[in-house]
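Deliverable D4.2, example record:
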Amino acid sequence: MAPPTVAQLSPVGTIPGVDERRVNDPAVVAELQAVFERYERALVANDVETLVELFRDAPETVRYGIDDVQHGHAEVATFRRTEAQATMPRRLLDTVITTFGDDVGIADTLFVPDGSDAVGRQSQTWVRTDVGWRVVSAHVSWLGGRAPTS
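Output generated by the structure prediction step:
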């Protein structure tokens, strides 16, 4: 069964401490969707500096990749600048953007590399900072541990 789309999710949440009227505010969802799409374009284009920019510059930032782990923005930046390779072109499936208030959001998506039937998962937690939306936590993995074959 496929996860619900953004349109199917209730605009009202029941998270303690979160104003129910502020979950999935359409304007905030649109903002985060735009920056998520910017991230995706940078990922596939291997635009390293944009990828580095879009992670929060803080020691608390965490990224769990397929075969790598970074704790802190400095490690994310070093990884992107020295070890990361261009991401294969891919299509996204079942992308869900959920926002909580004006300043916190989560982007979850499945992805399928072109020419493959392997399915990957990507989750990102975004926070609005004084310089814009930034990833504070990210996780990427293959569904069933099955990476695409070359």
